[in-house]
Amino acid sequence: MATPVMDKVEAESAASPYITVTFRVRRFNPEVSAEATWEDFQLEIDPKERVLDGLHKIKWDLDGTLTFRRSCAHGICGSDAMRINGRNRLACKTLIKDINPEKPITVEPIKGLTVLKDLVVDMEPFFQAYRDVMPFLVTTGNEPTRERLQSAEDRERFDDTTKCILCAACTSSCPVFWNDGQYFGPAAIVNAHRFIFDSRDEAGEQRLEILNDKDGVWRCRTTFNCTDACPRGIEVTKAIQEVKRALITRRF
């Protein structure tokens, strides 16, 4: 005969939010094999949790060798960009329930950058392109005695491109970048845009000349992959077009 305690346990079990989800992860360890392989992991997990939570469960409970980057886990640092079900996303912002957990959830490294191990890629080419566009305020003269003031209208001109968190989701979603690692890529152009249109900056012409290079802004084919991939909602393609327009109009 059922007891109140048993009834309570059964009720709690029936109300459990957990479901069984298959994580299909692309694994690569250069010390073991030159080829990447797929490995499946079965998890009991709340669908309201994030893909990052699932990866943590795998690493902490099933396979401690799984390698991936993550830091703040709140969509601010940009460390955990990866391809999830074929799309560039931040693992910390992607809920399991939003990506059809009834089918295997595929997780693989972002494209266009050399894979070092599992989901970790070599970010140095990406950051070198970022450094090349001079992503800092350039002014002349002595240090100011007061804040360099700027109107709200002038600030709004480049507000969108200040949101970049350097996750590389946009750049590694670009088919031009996949085929030619010399292309600056959307993220570098976005960060150049942020200073080109800053009314306090004095190096706009220099940045435009850098992006006028054969590997610069003209390589963009306007596929909108970058805009779709951006986890911060930046209108990346629009920013690239504005830099192109600035290059054309500065000659007249």
Automatic annotation (TrEMBL):
PROSITE patterns: 2FE2S_FER_2 (PS51085), 4FE4S_FER_1 (PS00198), 4FE4S_FER_2 (PS51379)
Cofactor binding comment, as recorded: Binds 1 [3Fe-4S] cluster. Binds 1 [4Fe-4S] cluster.
Domain 2Fe-2S ferredoxin-type as annotated: residue spans: 19-113
SUPFAM superfamilies: 2Fe-2S ferredoxin-like (SSF54292), alpha-helical ferredoxin (SSF46548)
InterPro entries: 2Fe-2S_ferredoxin-like_sf, 2Fe-2S_ferredoxin-type, 4Fe4S_Fe-S-bd, 4Fe4S_Fe_S_CS, Beta-grasp_dom_sf, Helical_ferredxn, SDH/FRD_Iron-Sulfur, Succ_DH/fum_Rdtase_Fe-S
Cofactor(s) essential for the protein: [3Fe-4S] cluster; [4Fe-4S] cluster; [2Fe-2S] cluster
E.C. code: 1.3.5.1
Top-level lineage group: Bacteria
Family statement drawn from the similarity comment of this UniProt entry: Belongs to the succinate dehydrogenase/fumarate reductase iron-sulfur protein family.
Record protein name field: Fumarate reductase iron-sulfur subunit
